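Section handout 9: paired folding examples.
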Amino acid sequence: MRINKFLSEAGIVSRRGADKWIEDGRITINGKQAELGSKVEPGDVVHADGKAVKHEEPYVYIALNKPVGITSTTERHINGNIVDFVNHPLRIFHIGRLDKDSYGLILLTNDGDIVNEILRAENEHEKEYIVKVEQPVTQAFIKEMSEGVEILDTKTLPCKVEQLSSHTFKITLTQGLNRQIRRMCAALGYDIISLQRVRIMNISINNLSIGQWRDLTKKELDELFEMLNYTPKR
């Protein structure tokens, strides 16, 4: 990052003002006089007028419409990992998972504290999915799915299920067992053709194209923080 941007993002001085400070010899990087255009690398120590400049990266909160084939992992050696796919300039990580064969909404951030607030099971935060199956959807299937299905040595919690067409239904979960919807459908003899997540709490995928990401809006963040009773630490 250029030194003038570093100083402005740290709240020390504007970019234009930073250039003047650099020309006046008021800025050092690792003990050496900074020059116009100098770069600051991770781990560098910057001083302004002899005082250390603390630079904290701003928090980012991102909605991604994950394609099929992208893996929800930060392990960079795994081909198709979500971090390389997004290619964000800051170090970010995903909140929860969306399996490789599914597509749709997944949130990413560099705010580690909010992750646990969203994923904490007892908070029962809603996640909404659109599912297409090979067999015709019946009222008996809808009833069984909504009342709970025996998988993974437990019975899933009651959930909202709505038929959308002959082979498609919408399901809203408040828990997140491993490959839960796929296991529920399989237990009832249904094969999934496609599985898309369209909403997490108050965040909806709306018109975000597959493979595209966007920053959450201020309105979305305000609502999310209120639902979580959460305040970022910076």
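Moving on to protein 2 of 2.
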Amino acid sequence: MINEDRLWNRLMELGEIGKQPSGGITRLSFTKEERAAKEKVASYMKEAGLAVYEDAVGNLLGRKEGKDPEAAVVLVGSHLDSVYNGGMFDGPLGVLSAVEVLQTMNERGVETKHPIEVVAFTDEEGARFSYGMIGSRGMAGTLSEEELVHQDKHGISIAEAMKAAGLDPSEIGKAARRKGSVKAYVELHIEQGRVLEQANLPVGIVTGIAGLVWAKFTVEGKAEHAGATPMPIRRDPLVAAAQIIQMIEQEAKKTGTTVGTVGQMQVFPGGINVIPARVEFSLDLRDIDAAVRDNVFQSIIERAQQIGQERNVKVTVERLQEMPPVLCSELVQNAAKEACKQLGFDVFSLPSGAAHDGVQLVDLCPIGMIFVRSKDGISHSPEEWSSKEDCAAGANVLYHTVMRLAMGE
């Protein structure tokens, strides 16, 4: 149904924006790279015959009207921002596939009862401010001005970055959608894992999204001379941090479902001949069961405090962000299952270990996701890859899923 070559060419073209010497993509929110990506995608939206606009938090939207313009909108999309040195498929595949779906509908003269909007959400990843899903929070009406104080590594807050991008932080409430105005949200995304690859399937239907906790650990010791301080009397926070990080891995492994990751670390003052005074590192902890995740988190905190006492250093833990696990709606799952059957694909269901914008919209509307096979399960890396054929398969499933949702009552 969809134009496979057009979708692929746009993916490759968009993948040049923010490209690093390593081949990876860095497109952080409210940067010139993100703006260039938005302008490129806006041009695709216009080519597809959509009415294009941005809302008060910078979400880029393209609208195809329905026979009943007052009917609840079917929302479909993803995000354009990336992690540092990430891949070209995570996010853009969902946005560009959604544009392709609507362009194909317009070319075929398809009219639906419900309006359909493509959305490219602002800052899903949270890479710049360590606080993500700004756009979907704004649309859900759960983003507050108080949350815009989070800063990047240069001390620039979300609010300041928004102002520099031409947005007014005091107006974020205008991005909120009223309950009942959105019939459903559907997102096509790469799996970022190996389940579909192991099953030898191009697409899968997501049953639910794991909930996460982000935390910041600070370990404080005493900075002293590296050569003149005997080992037995040192208060080295980096050694304690290393022990805590190993413990995090042990605790996460115990459940069989929990995953824990330390992705950021800073050592102060950072001299080669100085025992550190302070170490800060992040924790990303996830599980499909909130109770299991929270029990693991509590165990990690308790054992971290014990390690701190044993090594005579101070350990503090700041809970930065929390998202509960979310189940995908039967409405969207059933539409996707029927789409797979119509196209001759196996109906295969699986959970998402990664978080996505849909978790923020669950109180606004039914949500669902379709996964596309990831080569070797690699994501958030320059090696991230999904084949042209698999991307087209996912986009075709998305086409029929959106069609069913937008045609019905």
